[in-house]
Amino acid sequence: MGDGAKAKSILIAGAGPVGLTAALELARRGFVPRIVDDGQGPAPLEESRALGINARTLTLLSAAGVTDHIVAAAQPIAHFRLRSGAKVLANVDTRRLPGRFCAIHGLAQGATERLLIEALADYGISPEWQTAVEPETIADPLKPEVTLRRLDRTTETVRPDILVGADGAHSAVRKALGAGFPGEALEAYFYLADFRYVKPVDAHFAEITLCDPGMLGRLPVSADVLRYISTLEDFESRIVHPEAIVEKTWVSQFRIHFRHVEPMAKGNVFLAGDAAHIHSPAGARGMNLGIEDACWLAWLIAEGREQEYSALRIPAVKQVLKQTYGLTRLVTMRNPLAIAARNLFAPLLLRFGPVRRQLLHSISGYDTPRPPWIDWAE
Ligand SMILES: Cc1cc2nc3c(=O)[nH]c(=O)nc-3n(C[C@H](O)[C@H](O)[C@H](O)COP(=O)(O)OP(=O)(O)OC[C@H]3O[C@@H](n4cnc5c(N)ncnc54)[C@H](O)[C@@H]3O)c2cc1C
């Protein structure tokens, strides 16, 4: 790559985990991207959407020096349990994976964002907060033009060589491109609540209890905070808390959508992360898949091959949507016969080595194409 390529002006809309990763991966390759976000700062530590960081993401962020900090701050999730009432149907040891990392670590999304911001600061780049990208329409995606609006209502017109839309599920950049976001939403609502306990709890396993119908998941947020997530509105009455509660730190409810944009780019405008695809949190893939998009895009820009981005990413996106759709259907089924069959066969299948390995492989994020610029074993 010549210095001409590095001189390209790059505007990244959105300083969530995906926009920050894109900025960092470009910065470590000599680019000076500008990154803006309409929020006040990174996601609050106590309102964490993403918790799971998979092994592929740890591989990807190694080059930028972020992985060691994530591993130091995160909880390695050593076991994944599937229960039906008090009975343990399956217990998968997530450390039984070749390579440097266990399949998944737990860390609040806000903490991950702060680590990315710190790494980016080493290159002299900081997100410009309270700065919204307001593209009405992008008439010529080969020469994108957008308006930036600050909190004080001042505006600036920017014409970057490359515009990256990492501005989340309601992406203004995607809408300005006139790109659809086809897909479907599940009927059911999901409910979540995070609890802080008086002292540390066992934060090294994740668990799904099948309630038939419905499910209750338990996930570690930190050493003394657990998340419960469920399809049942009255789920809190079903929780067996491991310790006395100090406080409920966050509650939320949401519907799950399975949507993706195709293609993921037009001209010199590229969509990454939730701006390009959204799906169920089952399997903890959303943020991880978006971080992967950002890393691939930065590498392709550095190689002068960014026009290949969409064709290279779409198969990975479709694969993850399909996998998370299957997992979500498995834990939300209502038909008694289907439930009985699942409860009989799932534990048997999970005792079978190749099935366990396949499950671990996809939880790790290793089921998408390997990043070609990483020259060490994952
Ligand atoms: C309950 C739940 C649990 C989840 N658990 C996991 C998990 O365990 N693992 C996982 O990998 N994923 C998980 N996800 C998904 C994950 O949270 C998202 O995939 C991830 O946040 C996407 O990151 P992003 O940077 O693309 O978008 P976002 O995190 O949404 O960031 C977009 C940023 O763009 C900014 N923005 C928006 N519009 C504009 C604009 N016009 N101008 C400027 N800035 C703008 C926003 O302020 C925001 O900071 C979960 C999601 C939910 C709902």
Question: Notable features of this structure?
Answer:
378 residues, FAD/NAD(P)-binding domain, 19 strands, 27% strand, oxidoreductase activity, acting on paired donors, with incorporation or reduction of molecular oxygen, NAD(P)H as one donor, and incorporation of one atom of oxygen, FAD, oxidoreductase, FAD-dependent monooxygenase
> Mind telling me the C-alpha Rg?
21 Å
Unreliable stretches (pLDDT < 50, length at least 5) are none
| Ligand list | flavin-adenine dinucleotide
By DSSP, the count of extended strands is 19
Q: Report the sheet-strand fraction.
A: 25-35%
Q: Provide the succession of SSEs.
A: HEHEEHHEEEEHEEEEHEEEEEEEEHHHH
Provide a descriptive summary of the structure in words:
- This protein is an alpha+beta fold.
- It has a single domain (3-363), classed as 3-Layer(bba) Sandwich (FAD/NAD(P)-binding domain).
- Helices cover 31% and strands 27% of the residues.
- It contains ten helices and 19 strands.
- The chain has helices at 3-6, 17-27, 55-62, 67-73, 109-121, 172-177, 286-303, 309-332, 336-350, 353-363; strands at 10-13, 34-36, 52-54, 75-76, 79-84, 87-93, 104-106, 131-133, 146-150, 155-158, 162-165, 183-197, 205-210, 215-222, 225-230, 245-260, 265-266, 269-271, 277-278.
- The chain has an eight-stranded mixed sheet, with helices on one face. Strands 2-1-11-18-17 form a five-stranded mixed sheet.
- Helix 3 crosses helix 4.
- The longest helix is centred in the C-terminal third of the chain and has 24 residues, at 309-332.
- It is globular, with a radius of gyration of 21 Å.
- The two termini are 26 Å apart.
- The model has no long low-confidence stretch (mean pLDDT 92).
- Bound molecules: flavin-adenine dinucleotide.
- Residues 13-19, 36-39, 49-52, 109, 132-133, 166-168, 172, 192, 254, 273-275, 281, 284-288, 290 line the site of flavin-adenine dinucleotide.
